[in-house]
Structures are given as structure tokens and as C-alpha cells.
Model the fold of this input.
Amino acid sequence: MATKLYVGNLAYSTDKETLQNRFSEYGTVLSATVITDKQTGGSKGFGFVEFEDDSCAQKAVSALNGKEVDGRRIRVSEARERERER
Done:
């Protein structure tokens, strides 16, 4: 079953290819996304990486949480479902 990871504190210059390449060292990445502002198109400083396999995702969390990517220490954790607004 696929596992989605949250990646925070990204440099504004980090793109999805950088995420894909960095995380693919730990297993098959199904998707990598950097969230962008709808008006400016610029990065919001976070994104998501989806792994094919949970054990690979956990290895990536352990290896990359707190590591430097493009000059910033990233935060990596398992993504949580968005809570719906009431």
C-alpha cells in the first residue's frame, strides 16, 4: 500500500525533480509534489512524496528528517489526512 510523506521547510527553489531524486534513493517514488501558491505560482515551502511501499517510506523519514536539502533542514513525516473545515 502506498504511503504519503509530508516534506516541510523546503527552500523556495526546491522543485519536484529534486524531491523525486532525493527520495528515490530509498525506494520507488510514485509521485513528488511541491505545493505552490495559486496566485504567484511560487513554492509554499512544503510538499509531498508518495512511496509505493511503507517500509521504504519509513526509511526515508529516518534518513532525511532534519537533513539539509538546497540549504535548508527539511522536516519529513508521514502525511496526515486533511481535516475538513466545518
The mean pLDDT is 94. The CA atoms of residues 34 and 85 lie 23 Å apart. The two ends are 30 Å apart (CA to CA).
